[in-house]
Amino acid sequence: MVAVGTSILPLFLYSVLLFHLPLFLSLDVFLFENCTQGTNFTATSTYQANLNRIVSQLSSLTEFNNGFYNLSVGTSPDNVNAIALCTADRTREQCISCVNYTITELRGACPWNKEAIAWSEFCMVKYANRNLFGNLENDPRKCAPSPAFAMNPDQFNAAVSQLMNKLNFNATAGDPRKYASGQTKSGFDTVYGSVQCTPDLDDASCGSCLNFSTTELLNCCSGKIGCRVLSPNCMLRFESNPFENEAPEPPGPPPPPTHSPTGKASDKFFHNDSLNGIHSLFLCRNDVNTSTCQECVKNSTQTLTERCPTTTGGIIWYDECMLRYSNINFLGQMELNPAYLMWNLANLSNPEEASVNIQGLYSDLVEGAPAEPTKFLTKERPVFNGNESRYGLAQCSRDLNETSCYNCLNYLHTWIEVCCKDKKGWRVGTPSCNIRIEEYQFFNLSTPAAPPPEIQDERLSEEIWLRSSATHVTEAPDTAGIELLTSDCSTT
Ligand SMILES: *[C@@H]1O[C@H](CO)[C@@H](O)[C@H](O)[C@H]1NC(C)=O
Ligand SMILES: *[C@@H]1O[C@H](CO)[C@@H](O)[C@H](O)[C@H]1NC(C)=O
Ligand SMILES: *[C@@H]1O[C@H](CO)[C@@H](O)[C@H](O)[C@H]1NC(C)=O
Ligand SMILES: *[C@@H]1O[C@H](CO)[C@@H](O)[C@H](O)[C@H]1NC(C)=O
Ligand SMILES: *[C@@H]1O[C@H](CO)[C@@H](O)[C@H](O)[C@H]1NC(C)=O
Ligand SMILES: *[C@@H]1O[C@H](CO)[C@@H](O)[C@H](O)[C@H]1NC(C)=O
Ligand SMILES: *[C@@H]1O[C@H](CO)[C@@H](O)[C@H](O)[C@H]1NC(C)=O
Ligand SMILES: *[C@@H]1O[C@H](CO)[C@@H](O)[C@H](O)[C@H]1NC(C)=O
Ligand SMILES: *[C@@H]1O[C@H](CO)[C@@H](O)[C@H](O)[C@H]1NC(C)=O
Ligand SMILES: *[C@@H]1O[C@H](CO)[C@@H](O)[C@H](O)[C@H]1NC(C)=O
Ligand SMILES: *[C@@H]1O[C@H](CO)[C@@H](O)[C@H](O)[C@H]1NC(C)=O
Fold it and tell me: Membrane-spanning residues where (predicted)?
């Protein structure tokens, strides 16, 4: 039996998760603290008074000082020393705000300890009753791996190790910030890394801190797609997506593009616009017919309006289409957040398929779809002796260029690894791209022919759009039910 386009899922049980990934956080997030035990002070002591002065100084910094601060208050035995370090991509305001936030949280977490340290997303703060300046310390330290595994762990680890060694070299080669960042390739993946010492260390101590933490990192983060190792004098991090503010240019797909950069920006299956400060787009699967697409867009407009009546943005995914709007201009931008993951609860009957057939199908889609004018590709992959097939579909939003489409699809494997790779069927999607793989043919092989004439664009762009009263939508013929996957409302 062949199931196509609008087949309903009950054949399978699906699990759905909606992820909000803190990938490009602009806000500080408190990560860890460590209160050194056995170093308590008492209320109304001189130490407390001195510490309060340190806290107040750290909470009201005005100078930038390249994101590094060393402060001292009082005299022995009640002296309090503090150091603070921001990640090198912070501006003055971001740094000052991170230090204020982190010292406030740390004081709350360790109210009576003379010595304590905390790390947050963008900075580290430490204070103690002893000299900290220029002293290399490897403890306390914290390893924070991502839960997701790399597709090809050995290759990925090797790339991480090589990158870290280069970065360690660069950070200790005279940079006054004792900082280096860079990237390298691991198969289809890119690894982004950064390392940074407190600049009070000399190059040798910095190198030894980085070497120590790199060893730690290669152990505790082995096979993971991202990780940080945090210690009092250095911070190391790698991710498979750019995480720094001035992130390096993402590399393009292996062969340089030879196709026309994008398909028609607007047709029956894709439309974007920016009207009255609202940016919006819809995108249909290219293998559904026009009436199904229209029905889907109509339904999604109505449903999203109902679900997100008051928010400044929203997104809804159907099997056949997706619809998105926001008061922030997202057109042309790769957006990985929020993501949905759905998978068939049944496992592959042959687990080895995951690394061969499914991986192969996935790679074909990731390499092929970005070059398609429609950014849409379906693939059938014969397996075993050709007595069975696996089927895949990949699609990027058509406002993306080839590079961003590739990066988006390539990024999905981090989720596939977590949720799906050994399942009989699954879908993973973000606002910019999605992939689906099944053991049955769920798509329509005969894709629509030439794009429709211009006049239709106009008609469509006027009639289907997301206003709170989406009243003048084209009457589409009543077709079989279209399938709602999930939706998300956002506020800015
Ligand atoms: C520091 O943080 C506190 C609490 O979050 C806030 O009330 C205060 O205004 C901040 N100080 C500065 C100088 O930003
Ligand atoms: C901070 O470090 C500098 C550089 O050695 C040192 O001269 C200064 O005294 C330190 N400041 C404080 C407040 O400890
Ligand atoms: C190290 O620094 C050199 C010289 O600035 C640079 O060419 C190289 O790309 C850097 N290495 C990494 C891994 O960033
Ligand atoms: C760090 O490790 C590298 C390579 O393992 C080595 O060449 C270098 O001397 C080490 N640096 C320090 C300061 O230990
Ligand atoms: C729609 O997307 C195309 C392709 O990215 C772009 O050229 C066009 O300006 C966009 N339209 C609007 C209204 O933003
Ligand atoms: C499949 O595509 C053909 C050709 O465009 C179309 O006639 C047919 O209605 C489509 N079927 C479905 C289920 O969308
Ligand atoms: C479009 O596809 C739907 C769903 O497969 C089908 O029910 C409908 O008849 C098709 N309409 C046209 C005009 O081909
Ligand atoms: C949208 O689709 C759902 C599920 O198929 C259906 O119950 C609902 O009536 C549809 N709404 C519109 C406006 O088509
Ligand atoms: C699928 O495999 C996982 C791990 O191998 C196992 O925990 C799970 O129970 C299996 N699920 C089913 C439905 O067989
Ligand atoms: C196809 O072949 C494989 C192994 O060669 C076998 O396990 C599987 O059951 C076959 N599938 C069908 C549909 O015959
Ligand atoms: C693709 O789009 C991204 C995001 O807009 C942009 O940074 C990048 O330079 C573009 N790449 C090409 C090859 O046009």
Answer: 12-32
Indicate the pLDDT class of residue 216, thresholds 50, 70 and 90: very high
Least confident of 88-97, 273-282, 325-334, 433-442: 273-282
Ligand 10 contact, 468 CB (< 6 A): no
Just give the CATH number of 9-22+262-490.
3.30.430.20
Is the CB of 207 inside a 6 Å radius of any atom of ligand 4? yes
Q: Residue ranges of the domains in the chain?
A: 9-22+262-490, 30-128, 142-239
In the reported structure, the alpha carbon of residue 313 is separated from the centroid of ligand 8 by a whole-number distance in angstroms of 21
In the 8-state DSSP scheme, what is residue 358? I
Q: How far is the CA of 62 from the centre of ligand 1 (A)?
A: 12
Q: Which residues contact 255 (CB under 8 A, 6 or more apart)?
A: none
Tens-place pLDDT, residues 411-421: 998 888 878 88
Asked if residues 59 and 100 have their Cβ atoms less than 8 Å apart, the reply is: yes
Helix, strand, coil share of the chain (percent; to 5): 30, 30, 45
* Alpha carbon nearest to ligand 8 atom 1, residue: 299
Judge if 9-22+262-490 and 142-239 fold alike in CATH terms.
yes
User: Residue 436: which pLDDT band, with cuts at 50, 70 and 90?
Assistant: very high
pLDDT tens-place string over residues 150-176: 888 888 899 999 999 999 998 888 888
Please tell me if the CB atom of residue 48 comes closer than 6 angstroms to any atom of ligand 1.
no
Selection from 53, 232, 42 nearest residue 137 by Cα: 232
Q: What is the CATH number of domain 142-239?
A: 3.30.430.20
| 384: its two tokens | 């075993």
Q: Which ligand is nearest the CA of 164, by number?
A: 3
Task: Please choose, from the candidates 211, 250, 262, 259, the residue with its C-alpha nearest in 3D space to the C-alpha of residue 234.
Answer: 211
Nearest alpha carbon, ligand 9 atom 2: 347
Q: DSSP per residue over 114-163, as a string?
A: SSEEEEETTEEEEEESS--TT-----S-EEEE-SPBPSSHHHHHHHHHHH
pLDDT digits (tens, 9 = 90+) for 371-423: 999 999 999 999 888 888 999 999 999 999 999 999 999 999 888 887 888 88
Q: Which two tokens stand for residue 249?
A: 């240019």
Question: pTM for the full model?
Answer: 0.49
**Does residue 460 carry a pLDDT above 60?**
no
Q: Evaluate: CB of 446 within 6 angstroms of ligand 6.
A: yes
The encoded tokens of residue 226 equal 């991202």
Within 10 Å of residue 410's Cβ, how many Cβ atoms?
A: 24
Strand partners, 40: 113
Question: Which ligand 11 atom sits closest to the C-alpha of 261?
Answer: 14
Q: Which of 99, 221, 96 is nearest to 150 (CA)?
A: 221
Q: What is the CATH number of domain 30-128?
A: 3.30.430.20
Is there an atom of ligand 4 within 6 Å of 162 CB?
no
The predicted pLDDT at position 446 comes to 62
